[in-house]
Design brief:
Helix content is 36%, strand content 14%. It has helices spanning 14-28, 53-62, 81-87, 121-127, 129-132, 146-160, 171-177, 217-225, 248-258, 274-279, 296-304, 316-319, 331-344, 357-372; strands at residues 2-6, 32-36, 68-71, 91-95, 165-168, 181-183, 203-208, 232-237, 263-266, 283-286, 307-311, 324-326. The longest helix has 16 residues, at 357-372. The two termini are 13 Å apart.
């Protein structure tokens, strides 16, 4: 079977890691698999983030003869690729990794940090004003630019009609995007051994994810600051990308960490190192302020036997049935949950395993084949 996987990135981030691992696994199963994206291009601006003649020209060549096009993320590519694939005779599958298809910011969180009920032309025009008017400075006096937002939402609506099957790692993501989606839980990308029984000592909390406001590391940092000194450690681990073009958030985190004994801040580690990192922790903290879908780090932590404490949002309760769910964004609630984990000590849970990648890849191949018959 000739399969083309499409992604805006193939390294870093859950969607890119998954897409690369799936493509490799299907190739090992004997299929003709290629990858498309990202594309170097001259276009810039809001429209170029979702529509690009240069990308479409490159895709027409890359997808020639494909029987299946499996799309993982179209940010910086084009929402018209599913139509092109279908008109060329390929089956079109889309894995829903986040909310970018309907939300240009990707997380259904507005520019003020509030969770958004969903796309709306006026609401989106206000939220995206700095991008829609760039390079002009942001100003509350600028009129709303509704037309670019309407064009993007219309492109998303048209795209939905060109997809054979949406695949949802959590049912929540399909509901929020208002699409009929097939449940498709993410697998373990690589085997994760259960962690050995830990020796007695202070509880070891781990946050592993992007150091951006919507991931909420500042919430658990303030909760940790209110815990008894010496009762535990907190390791914050992840990349520090700019957020809305600014880098000061990670800098503020670093200053706060420096004030707190037992807290540490480290750059992102290569994905193969995650097993060892998980084995050095007792509790994974997921304090996200956006509606997470199905974070790979949670799947891996469960396989290692870690306890999970997570914001009561999104799809996490689906993939982590044993997780302790906490009110998002409230340091006091997080302090209480973390104090309860300290009282439990370093005990581990029984591992919760997912399909391995070869099994997952084979199941998707069977799903592709059903579309072709």
């Amino acid at each position: 079977m000739r399969i083309v996987h499409v992604s805006h990135a193939w390294e870093g981030g859950g969607s890119g890691l998954y897409a690369a691992a799936l493509a490799d696994a299907q190739q090992r199963l004997g299929h003709d698999v290629s990858r498309f994206g990202p594309v170097r291009r001259r276009e810039r601006g809001f429209r170029a983030s979702w529509s690009s003649p240069e990308v479409e020209l490159a895709f027409a060549d890359a997808a020639r003869g494909a029987e299946i096009v499996h799309i993982h993320h179209l940010s910086g590519l084009s929402l018209d690729l599913p139509r092109m694939a279908r008109e060329a005779g390929a089956g079109v599958f889309v894995t829903l990794h986040d909310y970018w298809l309907a939300c240009a910011r990707g997380q259904l969180v507005d520019a003020g940090g509030e969770r958004c009920p969903g796309p709306d032309i006026d609401r989106c025009a206000r939220c995206l004003a700095p991008h829609l008017w760039a390079p002009l400075p942001a100003s509350t006096h600028l009129p709303l630019r509704r037309a670019p937002v309407a064009d993007r939402l219309n492109a998303w609506s048209l795209m939905r009609e060109q997809v054979d099957t949406f695949l949802a790692p959590s049912l929540h993501v399909g509901k929020r995007l208002i699409v009929d989606a097939v449940s498709c839980p993410l697998p373990l990308l690589h085997p994760i051994r259960p962690a050995a029984t830990a020796a007695p000592g202070p509880i070891r909390f781990l946050f592993a994810g992007a150091l951006i406001p919507t991931k909420g590391p500042h919430v658990v940092l303030e909760a940790f600051a209110a815990l008894p000194a010496g009762a535990g450690t907190l390791r914050l681990l992840g990349p520090a990308p700019p957020y809305d073009g600014r880098r000061d958030y990670a800098e503020r985190l670093a200053h706060r960490v420096a004030e707190l004994p037992g807290a540490s801040l480290e750059p992102a580690a290569p994905h193969p190192a995650m097993e060892a990192i998980l084995h050095e922790a007792d509790v994974l903290l997921v304090p996200s302020l956006w509606e997470e879908n199905a974070p790979l780090v949670v799947i891996e932590a469960l396989a290692a036997g870690l306890r999970v404490v997570a914001s009561d949002l999104g799809g996490i309760s689906e993939i982590a049935p044993t997780a302790t769910l906490v009110e998002p964004g409230t340091a006091r609630a997080w302090r209480s949950a973390m104090a309860a984990e300290i009282r439990r000590g370093r005990g581990r849970n029984s591992p919760i395993l997912r399909d391995d990648m070869p099994t997952h890849a084979a199941r998707l191949l069977a799903l592709y084949a059903r579309r072709r018959t």
